[in-house]
Amino acid sequence: MQAPSKNPIRISWQALFSVLMFGFMYLPILVLGFYSFNQSPNSAQWGGFTLSWYVKFFNDSRILSALSDSLKVAFCAVGISAIIGTLMAVGLARYKFPGKQLYQGVSYLPLIIPDIAIAVSTLVFLAVIAVPLSLWTIVAAHTVFCLSYVAFVVSTRLVNLNPHLEEAAQDLGATPYQSLVMVLLPELMPAIVSGCLLAFVLSMDDFLISSFTAGGGATTLPMEIFSRIRTSVKPDINALSVVLMVTSGAVALIAETIRYRSEKKRLQ
């Protein structure tokens, strides 16, 4: 009696392509994380396991100063964008006015325009109006693209909301302001928080726009990292990069969790 033959394991080209693609994207990150624990200051050779590089950059005054500047820029830009971006999304979704389509297209342009174009145009504009470069010019430049991200996320939430909620609240005696604050904003709050978290990560990560609009004494964290890796990449920069990636991933996970819970609650 002939023994049943085993089916050979077949690997589709789609699975192979996916493995290669994810390996190409994430293998350098794994290597960077591995060498952040390297005791040797030279990344070309392994000298043993250590956590000293993490301790070193946490005690580095220049890194902490740059981190402070980045946080100031991100919080200010996101705070301004949360207010203006939400109002812009509500206005575009709920009201009709001349030139609405043109304004809507211009509002979302920072989503598709390259960062270098935004950086150069912002620098030229600041030079024309004779505004000296400082930390606040970085805030203004970051607000431009953060505004579009917040407005885009909030607008996607508005599409799925009942457009007659505010009308029903006003029929029950609420003023337009009360219907906005007490009815519409609570429904939009998960999208506002998600948009703000996304904008915060993008602001902390930005290098091009910050380097073009920064004045003397204003140095964000990406600018400080770039100034240190011109000659060589030290293990303390590897450690800092790992911390930034973990933090960014945690913020993105929080934003996605908020969005998922909001969507699940809406469908119930």
From TrEMBL:
InterPro entries: Bact_Polyamine_Transport (IPR051789), MetI-like (IPR000515), MetI-like_sf (IPR035906). Belongs to the binding-protein-dependent transport system permease family. CysTW subfamily. This is ABC transporter permease. Pfam families: BPD_transp_1 (PF00528). The lineage of its organism: Bacteria, Bacillati, Cyanobacteriota, Cyanophyceae, Leptolyngbyales. One of its GO terms (cellular component) is plasma membrane. It is found in: Cell membrane. The keyword Cell membrane applies. It comes from the Bacteria. Residues 67-255 form the ABC transmembrane type-1 domain. PROSITE patterns: ABC_TM1. It is a multi-pass membrane protein. One of its GO terms (biological process) is transmembrane transport. Keywords: Cell membrane, Membrane, Transmembrane, Transmembrane helix, Transport. CDD domains: TM_PBP2. The chain crosses the membrane at residues 12-37, 71-93, 105-129, 135-159, 180-202, 237-258.
